[in-house]
Specification:
The chain is mainly beta. The strands form 2 sheets. Strands 3-4-5-6-7-9-10 form a 7-stranded mixed β-barrel. The chain has a two-stranded antiparallel ribbon with strand order 1-2. The longest helix is centred in the middle third of the chain and has 6 residues. The chain is globular and about 40 Å long. It starts with a strand and ends in a 17-residue tail after the last strand.
Length: 154
């Protein structure tokens, strides 16, 4: 299917790329269909999550475990059933990144996006346990040799 997007222009999305959110992205409850979009440029560990139903909505997301080695949570039984998760390998966890400036980049560790890639369903899950913030500075927690990664510099 062809999808018009503000950020990328007209792009082709295969049906098997579409992820249905059964637990919506907070603030965007009416939007259910999203897809990960690659720009062809190496922006790892960042990806774009494009809303299929709204050409103006694109989130920058990342794998929180790349930046925060101690990040962990237990997925409630409600979500494991709703997302049809049977094995840990079935899921992928992403967090939304907010870029206010090159020096002010945060991510929401309090409400990760949990994706069952096999079933192509996802939910933004609010963590009740723990004290993870909604605006965790991203680059302060980076591990490894790529500590200078900047999603807006490329």
């Amino acid at each position: 299917m062809m999808v018009n997007t503000r950020r990328f222009g007209l792009i082709e999305i295969n049906e098997d790329q579409v992820i249905t959110f059964i637990g919506p992205v907070l603030g965007f409850e009416t939007l259910k269909k999203y897809a990960f979009v690659s720009t062809g440029e190496d922006r790892q560990p960042f990806e774009f999550l494009q809303a299929i139903e709204d050409e103006n909505l694109t989130f920058i997301v990342t794998d929180p475990f790349v930046f925060f080695k101690d990040y962990e949570f237990q997925l409630d039984k409600h979500w494991t059933e709703a997302l049809d998760v049977h094995r840990e390998e079935d899921i992928q966890v992403m967090v939304i990144v907010t870029v206010r400036s090159p020096e002010d980049i945060t991510c929401n560790l309090r409400a990760p996006i949990v994706i069952n890639r096999t079933k192509r369903v996802a939910a933004q899950v609010i963590l009740e346990q723990g004290s993870y913030p909604t605006k965790q500075p991203l680059l302060g927690g980076k591990k490894g040799a790529d500590a200078d990664v900047n999603p807006v510099s490329k």
